[in-house]
From TrEMBL:
<keyword id="KW-0560">Oxidoreductase</keyword>
<comment type="similarity">
    <text>Belongs to the D-isomer specific 2-hydroxyacid dehydrogenase family.</text>
</comment>
<dbReference type="InterPro" id="IPR015878">
    <property type="entry name" value="Ado_hCys_hydrolase_NAD-bd"/>
</dbReference>
<dbReference type="InterPro" id="IPR050857">
    <property type="entry name" value="D-2-hydroxyacid_DH"/>
</dbReference>
<dbReference type="InterPro" id="IPR029752">
    <property type="entry name" value="D-isomer_DH_CS1"/>
</dbReference>
<protein>
    <submittedName>
        <fullName>D-2-hydroxyacid dehydrogenase</fullName>
    </submittedName>
</protein>
<keyword id="KW-0520">NAD</keyword>
<dbReference type="InterPro" id="IPR006140">
    <property type="entry name" value="D-isomer_DH_NAD-bd"/>
</dbReference>
<dbReference type="Pfam" id="PF00389">
    <property type="entry name" value="2-Hacid_dh"/>
</dbReference>
<dbReference type="Pfam" id="PF02826">
    <property type="entry name" value="2-Hacid_dh_C"/>
</dbReference>
<keyword id="KW-0028">Amino-acid biosynthesis</keyword>
<dbReference type="InterPro" id="IPR036291">
    <property type="entry name" value="NAD(P)-bd_dom_sf"/>
</dbReference>
<feature type="domain" description="S-adenosyl-L-homocysteine hydrolase NAD binding">
    <location>
        <begin position="127"/>
        <end position="293"/>
    </location>
</feature>
<dbReference type="InterPro" id="IPR006139">
    <property type="entry name" value="D-isomer_2_OHA_DH_cat_dom"/>
</dbReference>
Amino acid sequence: MKVLANDGISQSGIDALEKAGYEVSTTTVAQEQLINYINDKDIAVLLVRSATTVRKDLIDACPGLKIIGRGGVGMDNIDVEYAREKGLHVINTPAASSHSVAELVFGHLYGLARFLHNSNREMPLEGDSNFKGLKKAYAKGTELKGKTLGVLGFGRIGQATAKVALGAGMKVVAFDPFLEKADLTLEFFDGQTVTFEIETISKEDVLKQADFITLHVPAQKDYVIDEAEFNMMKDGVILANAARGGVVNEVALVKAIESGKVARAALDVFEKEPKPEVQLLMNSALSLTPHTGAATNEAQDRIGTELASQIISILG
């Protein structure tokens, strides 16, 4: 049985599959050549991440496919329902990258709170000639401890992010239309645990209360954060989007930054990936990463082994 990991898979995943007797290819096949490759090579399992799309045409044209797997959470690049109607198994790894995304969000939030994204650019350029000027410019940092983090979307990743916030001494308020409350257990190095019960509140209340806001929602038709939502927020709020491009109105975000409503913001995802708007790339109030939320070695190992175990469970 042959597996094509078109967007790559960790060595741990390859090892698990090969041990179970599967033949694994990590060749990256261009989208327009994928149908022919799958049929010519008799591929039974197609694994993708965000780069490769699996639409109706491919599903119809590749009758030998048995499983489509997504290494990660969101499956908006796969026609999931159609594939399942056609008898294919569609799998993903929703839990594998939760903590990786949470840590990236906090990397951004700590950096934004202390202007690290600016300081790291300016020090190499002006550190010797304008040290005192830079010190003054970046001397009004804020602490996260004691502040309120608003979490929009309280699924696995939202909860993982909330755990980091609780560990940092923050108050957490959360909104999720499908969840009334969640028990979050923080595990510490010496085996001790502390459990917090977080009851969700309205989106409006989260926006009004939060000093920092992070989004963990799936892609959807309308913006989750648009001009009306920005108007509800505290003045000087710091925002992070490591969910999906298109859940925050980027034009409204820039306006909110210009007005002072939003002090600074972090974006790991963009409406026009892989070519974000230049005005975002050049905006000094933004801390930017190129969609690397799940891109840790640990997460990739978990993704690979989880996909492998699901494939082995389904096909034997």
